[in-house]
């Protein structure tokens, strides 16, 4: 049978009210009594009923987070970082996966509301969609703040913290141009999704600044942003032509798919074709050829997103509701001077 407040009170010879106040570290109880109560609770294996507590206070002490797909290392790293930061702040984390489906994303939000979540961190889907404003409205009606992390929906009145992927891609492509590359292929997701469109803007800016025309055939769209899609895109590219000297992939997982496909076709990296990725994940390090990538500072991004969310939960309005975290290039063996 589960231990109750009454059991602790009986053991210590004090009232249940005092036990409750002590467990909640209320200033009305002296430190000596608090210590005795906490020790007794531990000895008797007392676990507070968080559901009942939430009903009483109308607070769950829980933050919800949605990611598109935990099979992508980048998103798994976000979950790991956010969980640690949220726990340090004294909150629990409830994680859910949207399967990159906007409708599922909306359903998750409504579930979060029913569970009295105090705030939501959301990584938007990578699918083209007209933003479903109904769930944002529902969150506002229940006074539950929302902060987008690592991406955003391009609508008014949102808060977000994300790596500056436009600037990061600009830096990567500029790096390739400085190595003598002019025919640079970009492989990403759907162009209407911000995580791809912002990168394409950075790609275009780097070429334009160097007087290099933007060739539409070098902008490749994939149905997804996984390894397999990058392999397929690279295979189709090689069937059509071999005149390019560099490939900029949307993330490290896709970059690894590109590298492996090129090597399978007996094309050397970087001697024949240079390759760069993004996010500086494990994929850039385990590749037979270390992949030049862009570190998007996941820890810093997650910390600032959680801090912003906590500010709003406390009733404070962040001074800056839109934060772009500057990335840093990590150069490895996959990018080298153009040979032709």
UniProtKB/TrEMBL annotation:
<dbReference type="InterPro" id="IPR010982">
    <property type="entry name" value="Lambda_DNA-bd_dom_sf"/>
</dbReference>
<dbReference type="GO" id="GO:0000976">
    <property type="term" value="F:transcription cis-regulatory region binding"/>
</dbReference>
<keyword id="KW-0238">DNA-binding</keyword>
<dbReference type="GO" id="GO:0003700">
    <property type="term" value="F:DNA-binding transcription factor activity"/>
</dbReference>
<dbReference type="Pfam" id="PF00356">
    <property type="entry name" value="LacI"/>
</dbReference>
<protein>
    <submittedName>
        <fullName>LacI family DNA-binding transcriptional regulator</fullName>
    </submittedName>
</protein>
<dbReference type="InterPro" id="IPR046335">
    <property type="entry name" value="LacI/GalR-like_sensor"/>
</dbReference>
<dbReference type="InterPro" id="IPR000843">
    <property type="entry name" value="HTH_LacI"/>
</dbReference>
<keyword id="KW-0804">Transcription</keyword>
<dbReference type="InterPro" id="IPR028082">
    <property type="entry name" value="Peripla_BP_I"/>
</dbReference>
<dbReference type="Pfam" id="PF13377">
    <property type="entry name" value="Peripla_BP_3"/>
</dbReference>
<feature type="domain" description="HTH lacI-type">
    <location>
        <begin position="3"/>
        <end position="57"/>
    </location>
</feature>
<keyword id="KW-0805">Transcription regulation</keyword>
């Amino acid at each position: 049978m589960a231990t109750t407040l009454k059991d602790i009170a009986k053991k210590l010879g004090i009232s249940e009210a005092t036990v409750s106040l002590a467990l909640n570290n209320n200033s009305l109880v002296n430190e000596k009594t608090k210590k005795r109560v906490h020790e007794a609770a531990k000895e008797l294996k007392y676990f507070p009923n968080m559901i009942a507590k939430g009903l009483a206070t109308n607070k769950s002490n829980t933050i919800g987070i949605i990611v598109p797909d935990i099979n992508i290392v980048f998103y798994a790293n976000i979950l790991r970082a956010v969980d640690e930061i949220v726990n340090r702040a004294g909150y629990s984390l409830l994680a859910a996966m949207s399967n990159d489906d906007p409708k599922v994303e909306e359903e998750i939000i409504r579930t979060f509301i029913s569970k009295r979540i105090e705030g939501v961190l959301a990584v938007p889907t990578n699918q083209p969609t007209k933003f479903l404003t109904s769930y944002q409205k529902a969150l506002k009606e229940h006074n539950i703040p929302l902060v987008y992390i690592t991406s955003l929906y391009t609508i008014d009145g949102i808060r977000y913290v994300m790596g500056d992927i436009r600037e990061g891609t600009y830096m990567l492509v500029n790096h390739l141009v400085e190595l003598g590359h002019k025919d640079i292929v970009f492989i990403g997701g759907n162009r209407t999704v911000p995580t791809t469109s912002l990168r394409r803007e950075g790609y275009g800016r780097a070429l334009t600044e160097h007087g290099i025309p933007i060739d539409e055939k070098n902008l490749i769209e994939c149905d997804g942003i996984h390894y397999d899609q990058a392999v397929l895109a690279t295979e189709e590219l090689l069937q059509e032509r071999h005149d390019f000297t560099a490939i900029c992939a949307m993330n490290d997982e896709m970059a690894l798919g590109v590298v492996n496909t090129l090597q399978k076709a007996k094309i050397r990296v970087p001697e024949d074709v240079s390759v760069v990725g993004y996010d500086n994940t494990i994929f850039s390090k385990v590749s037979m050829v270390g992949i030049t990538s862009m570190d998007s500072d996941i820890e810093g991004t997650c910390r600032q997103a959680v801090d912003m969310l906590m500010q709003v939960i406390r009733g404070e309005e962040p001074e800056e509701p839109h934060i772009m975290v500057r990335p840093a290039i990590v150069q490895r063996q996959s990018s080298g001077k153009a040979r032709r």
